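F.,

This is the one I mentioned.
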């Protein structure tokens, strides 16, 4: 449990640094190139989580989520998962979580559907979503 918390804090601090760097970049460029920059690391996303591993086993229960490699992965039903980038499209803060059946940014409250569509004003740009495939206890997250 303690390791898990440290890992989350580590990932969070990494995410915030990444977001801060991105903000600097965005300040000197157009919005469209800013958007491309935030999406580019995402296109190489392809990793697998072992749901029998204690770190990720909470994904065996509907409503839970984990954050791995900057991606928020949620168990949205008995048979389905959803995954989106942790970096919000509103102001590029790495504060997206899963809550109440959708994705939610704790920074200013942007909300997104499980497919990444924006569902309120701050979330109106939507958010990069990823595919998921469960094989046995291996959950693959990929672009
Ligand atoms: S950065 Fe996510 S709502 Fe503003």
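My design for it:
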């Amino acid at each position: 449990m303690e390791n898990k918390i440290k890992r989350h804090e580590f990932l969070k601090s990494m995410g915030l640094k990444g977001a801060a760097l991105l903000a600097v970049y965005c300040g000197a460029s157009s919005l469209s190139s800013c958007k491309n920059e935030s999406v580019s690391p995402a296109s190489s996303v392809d990793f697998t989580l072992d749901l029998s591993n204690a770190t990720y086993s909470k994904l065996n229960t509907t409503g839970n989520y984990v954050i791995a490699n900057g991606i928020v992965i949620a168990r949205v039903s008995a048979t389905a998962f959803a995954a989106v980038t942790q970096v919000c499209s509103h102001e590029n803060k790495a504060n997206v979580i899963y809550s109440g059946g959708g994705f939610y940014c704790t920074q200013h409250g942007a909300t997104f559907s499980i497919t990444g569509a924006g569902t309120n004003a701050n979330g109106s740009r939507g958010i990069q979503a990823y595919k998921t495939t469960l094989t046995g206890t291996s959950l693959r997250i990929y672009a």
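The pocket of FE2/S2 (inorganic) cluster is lined by residues 88, 90-91, 93, 95, 105, 107-110, 122 (CB under 6 Å).

Talk soon.
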